[in-house]
Amino acid sequence: MQLIKRDEYLCWLTRWRDKQIIKVVSGVRRCGKSTLFTLFKKELLAAGVEQKQIISINFEAIEYEELKDYRILYKYILERLQPEKMNYIFLDEVQHCAEYQKVVDSLFIKENCDVYLTGSNAYFMSGELATILSGRYVELKMLPLSFKEFVGGLNEEYAKLSKEEQFNLYLEFGSFPFITRYNSFNEDAHNYLQDVYNTIILNDIVKRLSIADVTALDNVAKFLVYSIGNKISVNKIANTLKSAGKGIDAKTVDKYLMGLTDALMLYHAPRYNIKGRELLTTLGKYYVVDIGMRNLLVRNQASDIGHVLENIVYLELKRRGYEVYVGDIDNGEVDFVAIKAGEVEYYQVSATTLEESTLKRELAPFKAINDNYPKYLLTLDSVFANYDYAGVRKLNTLEWLLEKKEVVKS
After folding, report:
1. What is the pLDDT at residue 409?
2. Count of alpha carbons within 13 angstroms of residue 125, beta-carbon side
3. pTM tops 0.85, yes or no
Protein backbone atom coordinates (compact mmCIF):
# COMPACT_ATOMS: atom_id res chain seq x y z
CA MET A 1 0.00 0.00 0.00
CA GLN A 2 1.48 3.31 -1.08
CA LEU A 3 2.16 5.89 1.63
CA ILE A 4 0.30 9.19 1.44
CA LYS A 5 2.81 11.93 0.67
CA ARG A 6 2.65 15.01 2.84
CA ASP A 7 4.41 17.38 0.46
CA GLU A 8 4.35 20.53 2.59
CA TYR A 9 5.75 18.70 5.60
CA LEU A 10 8.40 16.97 3.47
CA CYS A 11 9.41 20.32 2.01
CA TRP A 12 9.84 21.64 5.56
CA LEU A 13 12.22 18.79 6.43
CA THR A 14 14.13 19.25 3.18
CA ARG A 15 14.47 22.98 3.79
CA TRP A 16 16.09 22.39 7.18
CA ARG A 17 18.22 19.39 6.14
CA ASP A 18 21.93 19.58 7.05
CA LYS A 19 21.47 22.79 9.00
CA GLN A 20 22.88 22.74 12.53
CA ILE A 21 19.56 22.96 14.24
CA ILE A 22 17.38 20.23 15.78
CA LYS A 23 14.23 19.42 13.83
CA VAL A 24 11.21 18.64 16.02
CA VAL A 25 7.93 17.24 14.64
CA SER A 26 5.06 17.29 17.15
CA GLY A 27 1.52 16.08 16.65
CA VAL A 28 -1.24 13.88 18.00
CA ARG A 29 -0.72 10.13 17.90
CA ARG A 30 -1.16 8.47 14.49
CA CYS A 31 -1.19 11.76 12.57
CA GLY A 32 1.62 10.50 10.32
CA LYS A 33 4.87 11.56 12.00
CA SER A 34 6.60 8.18 11.64
CA THR A 35 5.43 7.89 8.04
CA LEU A 36 6.81 11.36 7.36
CA PHE A 37 10.19 10.20 8.62
CA THR A 38 9.97 7.08 6.43
CA LEU A 39 9.28 9.19 3.35
CA PHE A 40 12.07 11.61 4.19
CA LYS A 41 14.56 8.78 4.72
CA LYS A 42 13.65 7.44 1.26
CA GLU A 43 14.39 10.88 -0.17
CA LEU A 44 17.76 10.90 1.58
CA LEU A 45 18.66 7.52 0.11
CA ALA A 46 17.52 8.63 -3.34
CA ALA A 47 19.78 11.68 -3.00
CA GLY A 48 22.85 9.49 -2.41
CA VAL A 49 22.93 9.20 1.38
CA GLU A 50 24.13 5.73 2.42
CA GLN A 51 21.96 3.56 4.65
CA LYS A 52 24.68 3.41 7.31
CA GLN A 53 24.49 7.20 7.64
CA ILE A 54 20.90 6.92 8.89
CA ILE A 55 20.30 5.99 12.54
CA SER A 56 16.62 5.49 13.22
CA ILE A 57 15.01 4.62 16.57
CA ASN A 58 11.30 4.34 17.37
CA PHE A 59 10.91 4.27 21.15
CA GLU A 60 7.51 2.57 20.89
CA ALA A 61 9.13 -0.51 19.29
CA ILE A 62 10.09 -3.17 21.83
CA GLU A 63 13.48 -3.81 20.22
CA TYR A 64 14.60 -0.36 21.36
CA GLU A 65 13.27 -0.63 24.90
CA GLU A 66 16.70 -0.67 26.54
CA LEU A 67 17.53 2.61 24.78
CA LYS A 68 15.06 4.44 27.01
CA ASP A 69 18.05 4.92 29.32
CA TYR A 70 19.69 8.04 27.92
CA ARG A 71 23.22 6.79 28.67
CA ILE A 72 22.66 3.57 26.72
CA LEU A 73 21.00 5.55 23.93
CA TYR A 74 23.96 7.90 23.58
CA LYS A 75 26.44 5.01 23.51
CA TYR A 76 24.31 3.21 20.88
CA ILE A 77 24.33 6.27 18.62
CA LEU A 78 28.04 7.03 19.10
CA GLU A 79 28.97 3.49 18.04
CA ARG A 80 27.11 3.95 14.76
CA LEU A 81 28.25 7.42 13.75
CA GLN A 82 30.09 7.55 10.42
CA PRO A 83 33.19 9.74 10.69
CA GLU A 84 33.67 12.46 8.09
CA LYS A 85 30.09 12.03 6.86
CA MET A 86 26.80 13.59 7.83
CA ASN A 87 24.76 11.31 10.09
CA TYR A 88 20.97 11.56 10.05
CA ILE A 89 19.55 10.64 13.45
CA PHE A 90 15.80 10.02 13.81
CA LEU A 91 14.38 9.63 17.32
CA ASP A 92 10.67 8.78 17.03
CA GLU A 93 8.36 9.28 20.05
CA VAL A 94 11.41 10.43 21.96
CA GLN A 95 9.41 11.43 25.07
CA HIS A 96 9.61 7.76 26.16
CA CYS A 97 13.34 8.17 26.86
CA ALA A 98 13.84 9.83 30.22
CA GLU A 99 16.23 12.79 30.06
CA TYR A 100 16.65 12.35 26.30
CA GLN A 101 17.40 16.07 26.12
CA LYS A 102 20.93 15.33 27.38
CA VAL A 103 21.54 13.07 24.38
CA VAL A 104 20.07 15.58 21.95
CA ASP A 105 22.14 18.42 23.37
CA SER A 106 25.35 16.39 23.06
CA LEU A 107 24.56 15.43 19.46
CA PHE A 108 23.73 19.02 18.59
CA ILE A 109 27.28 20.23 19.20
CA LYS A 110 28.72 17.61 16.82
CA GLU A 111 29.27 18.92 13.30
CA ASN A 112 28.27 15.70 11.56
CA CYS A 113 24.92 15.03 13.28
CA ASP A 114 21.60 16.10 11.78
CA VAL A 115 18.97 15.33 14.44
CA TYR A 116 15.22 14.81 13.95
CA LEU A 117 12.72 14.19 16.78
CA THR A 118 9.03 13.40 17.04
CA GLY A 119 6.70 13.49 20.03
CA SER A 120 2.97 12.98 20.54
CA ASN A 121 2.32 15.73 23.02
CA ALA A 122 2.96 19.41 23.60
CA TYR A 123 4.78 19.05 26.91
CA PHE A 124 7.70 17.04 25.55
CA MET A 125 9.09 20.30 24.16
CA SER A 126 8.52 22.23 27.35
CA GLY A 127 10.26 22.71 30.66
CA GLU A 128 13.85 21.60 30.93
CA LEU A 129 14.17 20.62 27.28
CA ALA A 130 13.03 24.00 26.03
CA THR A 131 15.50 25.64 28.41
CA ILE A 132 18.46 23.47 27.37
CA LEU A 133 17.71 23.68 23.65
CA SER A 134 16.45 27.26 23.55
CA GLY A 135 17.36 28.69 20.16
CA ARG A 136 18.64 25.33 18.97
CA TYR A 137 15.52 23.77 17.47
CA VAL A 138 12.74 24.43 14.99
CA GLU A 139 9.33 22.82 15.38
CA LEU A 140 6.88 21.49 12.81
CA LYS A 141 3.39 21.13 14.29
CA MET A 142 1.82 18.29 12.37
CA LEU A 143 -1.89 17.54 11.99
CA PRO A 144 -3.82 14.64 10.43
CA LEU A 145 -4.74 14.89 6.75
CA SER A 146 -6.14 18.06 5.26
CA PHE A 147 -9.10 17.58 2.94
CA LYS A 148 -6.76 18.11 -0.02
CA GLU A 149 -4.40 15.38 1.25
CA PHE A 150 -7.39 13.14 2.01
CA VAL A 151 -8.67 13.44 -1.57
CA GLY A 152 -5.18 12.81 -2.94
CA GLY A 153 -4.93 9.58 -0.93
CA LEU A 154 -8.18 8.00 -2.14
CA ASN A 155 -8.08 4.90 -4.32
CA GLU A 156 -9.55 4.78 -7.82
CA GLU A 157 -13.04 3.85 -6.59
CA TYR A 158 -13.37 6.78 -4.18
CA ALA A 159 -11.47 9.19 -6.43
CA LYS A 160 -14.41 9.01 -8.87
CA LEU A 161 -16.82 10.46 -6.31
CA SER A 162 -17.86 14.10 -6.40
CA LYS A 163 -15.98 16.43 -4.06
CA GLU A 164 -19.17 16.71 -1.99
CA GLU A 165 -19.32 12.92 -1.55
CA GLN A 166 -15.62 12.85 -0.69
CA PHE A 167 -16.17 15.60 1.86
CA ASN A 168 -18.96 13.56 3.47
CA LEU A 169 -16.49 10.68 3.89
CA TYR A 170 -14.01 13.13 5.42
CA LEU A 171 -16.67 14.35 7.86
CA GLU A 172 -17.84 10.88 8.86
CA PHE A 173 -14.58 8.96 9.12
CA GLY A 174 -12.09 11.70 9.80
CA SER A 175 -8.58 12.57 8.76
CA PHE A 176 -6.19 10.03 10.28
CA PRO A 177 -3.90 8.78 7.46
CA PHE A 178 -4.37 5.07 8.24
CA ILE A 179 -8.06 5.20 7.38
CA THR A 180 -7.47 6.90 4.03
CA ARG A 181 -4.41 4.84 3.20
CA TYR A 182 -6.44 1.62 3.42
CA ASN A 183 -9.74 3.22 2.32
CA SER A 184 -11.32 1.80 5.48
CA PHE A 185 -14.61 3.68 5.30
CA ASN A 186 -16.60 1.25 7.41
CA GLU A 187 -16.85 -0.03 10.98
CA ASP A 188 -13.09 -0.74 10.91
CA ALA A 189 -12.54 3.01 10.89
CA HIS A 190 -14.60 3.44 14.07
CA ASN A 191 -12.65 0.64 15.76
CA TYR A 192 -9.38 2.28 14.74
CA LEU A 193 -10.49 5.69 16.05
CA GLN A 194 -11.57 4.09 19.33
CA ASP A 195 -8.09 2.60 19.66
CA VAL A 196 -6.46 5.98 18.95
CA TYR A 197 -8.68 7.68 21.52
CA ASN A 198 -7.99 5.03 24.18
CA THR A 199 -4.25 5.31 23.58
CA ILE A 200 -4.31 9.10 23.91
CA ILE A 201 -6.39 8.95 27.10
CA LEU A 202 -4.45 6.16 28.81
CA ASN A 203 -0.87 6.72 27.60
CA ASP A 204 -0.67 10.47 27.09
CA ILE A 205 -2.92 11.74 29.86
CA VAL A 206 -3.73 9.17 32.57
CA LYS A 207 -0.15 7.95 32.98
CA ARG A 208 1.48 11.36 32.82
CA LEU A 209 -0.93 13.09 35.19
CA SER A 210 -1.49 10.04 37.46
CA ILE A 211 -5.26 10.19 37.01
CA ALA A 212 -7.27 7.67 39.01
CA ASP A 213 -10.77 8.52 37.77
CA VAL A 214 -10.59 7.69 34.06
CA THR A 215 -14.38 7.92 33.73
CA ALA A 216 -14.35 11.56 34.86
CA LEU A 217 -11.63 12.34 32.33
CA ASP A 218 -13.68 10.62 29.63
CA ASN A 219 -16.72 12.72 30.61
CA VAL A 220 -14.73 15.96 30.31
CA ALA A 221 -13.30 14.88 26.94
CA LYS A 222 -16.74 14.04 25.55
CA PHE A 223 -18.22 17.32 26.82
CA LEU A 224 -15.49 19.34 25.11
CA VAL A 225 -15.63 17.36 21.88
CA TYR A 226 -19.39 17.81 21.76
CA SER A 227 -19.06 21.55 22.52
CA ILE A 228 -16.62 22.51 19.74
CA GLY A 229 -17.11 26.08 18.63
CA ASN A 230 -18.83 27.16 21.86
CA LYS A 231 -17.35 29.53 24.42
CA ILE A 232 -16.09 27.42 27.29
CA SER A 233 -14.88 28.03 30.84
CA VAL A 234 -13.65 25.60 33.47
CA ASN A 235 -16.58 26.48 35.73
CA LYS A 236 -19.07 25.91 32.92
CA ILE A 237 -17.71 22.40 32.33
CA ALA A 238 -17.79 21.56 36.05
CA ASN A 239 -21.31 22.94 36.53
CA THR A 240 -22.71 21.20 33.45
CA LEU A 241 -21.28 17.83 34.43
CA LYS A 242 -22.45 18.31 38.02
CA SER A 243 -26.01 19.02 36.87
CA ALA A 244 -25.87 15.81 34.80
CA GLY A 245 -24.94 13.82 37.91
CA LYS A 246 -21.26 13.57 36.97
CA GLY A 247 -19.85 15.73 39.74
CA ILE A 248 -16.32 17.08 39.34
CA ASP A 249 -14.65 20.18 40.78
CA ALA A 250 -13.21 23.03 38.72
CA LYS A 251 -9.61 22.31 39.77
CA THR A 252 -9.85 18.76 38.45
CA VAL A 253 -11.48 19.96 35.22
CA ASP A 254 -8.59 22.37 34.71
CA LYS A 255 -6.10 19.53 35.16
CA TYR A 256 -7.94 17.34 32.65
CA LEU A 257 -8.22 20.22 30.19
CA MET A 258 -4.47 20.71 30.33
CA GLY A 259 -3.97 16.99 29.70
CA LEU A 260 -6.28 16.96 26.67
CA THR A 261 -4.62 19.98 25.06
CA ASP A 262 -1.10 18.79 25.90
CA ALA A 263 -1.94 15.47 24.22
CA LEU A 264 -2.88 17.53 21.14
CA MET A 265 -6.34 15.99 21.00
CA LEU A 266 -7.92 19.40 21.59
CA TYR A 267 -6.82 22.86 20.49
CA HIS A 268 -7.66 26.10 22.27
CA ALA A 269 -8.58 29.25 20.32
CA PRO A 270 -8.33 32.26 22.68
CA ARG A 271 -10.53 35.32 22.25
CA TYR A 272 -8.96 38.36 20.60
CA ASN A 273 -10.19 41.93 20.92
CA ILE A 274 -9.99 43.21 17.33
CA LYS A 275 -10.16 46.94 18.11
CA GLY A 276 -7.77 46.76 21.07
CA ARG A 277 -5.45 44.25 19.36
CA GLU A 278 -5.13 42.24 22.55
CA LEU A 279 -5.82 38.72 23.76
CA LEU A 280 -8.64 38.10 26.22
CA THR A 281 -8.09 35.53 28.93
CA THR A 282 -11.58 34.06 29.33
CA LEU A 283 -14.20 32.16 27.33
CA GLY A 284 -12.09 30.80 24.52
CA LYS A 285 -13.23 27.98 22.24
CA TYR A 286 -11.96 24.44 21.76
CA TYR A 287 -11.66 22.38 18.60
CA VAL A 288 -10.96 18.66 18.22
CA VAL A 289 -8.01 17.37 16.19
CA ASP A 290 -10.22 15.05 14.12
CA ILE A 291 -13.94 15.21 13.30
CA GLY A 292 -14.12 11.42 12.91
CA MET A 293 -13.13 11.08 16.55
CA ARG A 294 -15.89 13.52 17.50
CA ASN A 295 -18.41 11.34 15.64
CA LEU A 296 -17.14 8.34 17.58
CA LEU A 297 -17.53 10.02 20.96
CA VAL A 298 -20.91 11.68 20.37
CA ARG A 299 -22.44 9.23 17.90
CA ASN A 300 -26.00 9.63 19.08
CA GLN A 301 -26.03 13.42 18.85
CA ALA A 302 -27.51 15.33 15.92
CA SER A 303 -24.90 16.68 13.52
CA ASP A 304 -24.00 20.33 14.05
CA ILE A 305 -22.63 21.12 10.60
CA GLY A 306 -21.96 24.78 11.42
CA HIS A 307 -19.59 24.04 14.27
CA VAL A 308 -18.12 21.05 12.42
CA LEU A 309 -17.23 23.35 9.52
CA GLU A 310 -15.72 25.82 11.99
CA ASN A 311 -13.57 23.02 13.37
CA ILE A 312 -12.32 22.03 9.92
CA VAL A 313 -11.55 25.63 8.94
CA TYR A 314 -9.72 26.21 12.24
CA LEU A 315 -7.46 23.19 11.65
CA GLU A 316 -6.82 24.20 8.04
CA LEU A 317 -5.74 27.67 9.12
CA LYS A 318 -3.37 26.07 11.63
CA ARG A 319 -1.97 23.87 8.86
CA ARG A 320 -1.34 26.95 6.76
CA GLY A 321 0.79 28.42 9.52
CA TYR A 322 -1.58 30.92 11.12
CA GLU A 323 -2.09 31.72 14.77
CA VAL A 324 -5.87 31.49 15.12
CA TYR A 325 -8.13 33.38 17.53
CA VAL A 326 -11.84 34.02 18.06
CA GLY A 327 -12.50 37.68 17.26
CA ASP A 328 -14.47 40.00 19.57
CA ILE A 329 -15.82 43.19 17.99
CA ASP A 330 -18.50 45.57 19.39
CA ASN A 331 -20.40 42.86 21.26
CA GLY A 332 -20.25 40.71 18.13
CA GLU A 333 -17.97 37.92 17.05
CA VAL A 334 -15.84 37.02 14.06
CA ASP A 335 -15.32 33.28 13.96
CA PHE A 336 -11.58 33.51 13.33
CA VAL A 337 -8.83 36.09 13.34
CA ALA A 338 -5.88 34.46 11.55
CA ILE A 339 -2.45 36.08 11.94
CA LYS A 340 0.79 35.15 10.16
CA ALA A 341 3.95 37.25 9.83
CA GLY A 342 2.09 40.32 11.06
CA GLU A 343 -0.63 39.98 8.42
CA VAL A 344 -4.25 39.46 9.46
CA GLU A 345 -7.20 37.68 7.83
CA TYR A 346 -10.79 37.48 9.12
CA TYR A 347 -13.12 34.49 8.62
CA GLN A 348 -16.80 33.79 9.13
CA VAL A 349 -17.97 30.20 8.66
CA SER A 350 -21.56 29.15 7.97
CA ALA A 351 -23.16 26.10 6.38
CA THR A 352 -25.23 28.36 4.13
CA THR A 353 -26.09 32.03 3.75
CA LEU A 354 -28.73 31.73 1.03
CA GLU A 355 -31.37 33.16 3.35
CA GLU A 356 -31.08 36.95 3.44
CA SER A 357 -31.32 37.11 7.24
CA THR A 358 -28.46 34.61 7.64
CA LEU A 359 -26.27 36.48 5.15
CA LYS A 360 -26.94 39.75 6.95
CA ARG A 361 -26.06 38.21 10.32
CA GLU A 362 -22.78 36.72 9.06
CA LEU A 363 -21.68 39.94 7.34
CA ALA A 364 -22.57 42.23 10.26
CA PRO A 365 -19.38 41.71 12.35
CA PHE A 366 -17.19 42.57 9.35
CA LYS A 367 -18.81 46.02 9.09
CA ALA A 368 -17.49 46.92 12.54
CA ILE A 369 -13.89 46.26 11.51
CA ASN A 370 -12.14 49.42 10.38
CA ASP A 371 -9.04 47.98 8.73
CA ASN A 372 -8.44 46.73 5.21
CA TYR A 373 -7.23 43.22 5.94
CA PRO A 374 -8.85 40.42 3.87
CA LYS A 375 -12.27 39.20 4.99
CA TYR A 376 -13.71 35.82 4.00
CA LEU A 377 -17.14 34.21 4.34
CA LEU A 378 -16.87 30.43 3.93
CA THR A 379 -20.00 28.36 3.26
CA LEU A 380 -21.06 25.15 1.52
CA ASP A 381 -23.15 27.11 -0.98
CA SER A 382 -22.48 26.48 -4.65
CA VAL A 383 -24.87 29.28 -5.60
CA PHE A 384 -23.33 32.75 -5.10
CA ALA A 385 -19.98 31.13 -4.31
CA ASN A 386 -16.91 33.11 -5.39
CA TYR A 387 -18.79 36.35 -4.72
CA ASP A 388 -17.78 39.68 -3.26
CA TYR A 389 -19.96 41.60 -0.79
CA ALA A 390 -18.39 45.06 -0.47
CA GLY A 391 -14.95 43.64 0.26
CA VAL A 392 -16.04 40.40 1.96
CA ARG A 393 -15.18 37.45 -0.24
CA LYS A 394 -17.68 34.60 -0.11
CA LEU A 395 -16.02 31.30 -0.99
CA ASN A 396 -17.16 27.69 -1.16
CA THR A 397 -15.48 25.91 1.74
CA LEU A 398 -14.55 22.82 -0.30
CA GLU A 399 -12.92 24.95 -2.99
CA TRP A 400 -11.07 26.88 -0.28
CA LEU A 401 -9.88 23.65 1.34
CA LEU A 402 -8.66 22.47 -2.06
CA GLU A 403 -6.94 25.87 -2.39
CA LYS A 404 -9.04 27.21 -5.24
CA LYS A 405 -9.57 30.81 -4.15
CA GLU A 406 -10.56 32.69 -7.30
CA VAL A 407 -13.17 35.41 -6.65
CA VAL A 408 -15.68 37.08 -8.95
CA LYS A 409 -16.60 40.67 -8.06
CA SER A 410 -20.29 41.49 -7.59
Report:
1. 36
2. 23
3. yes
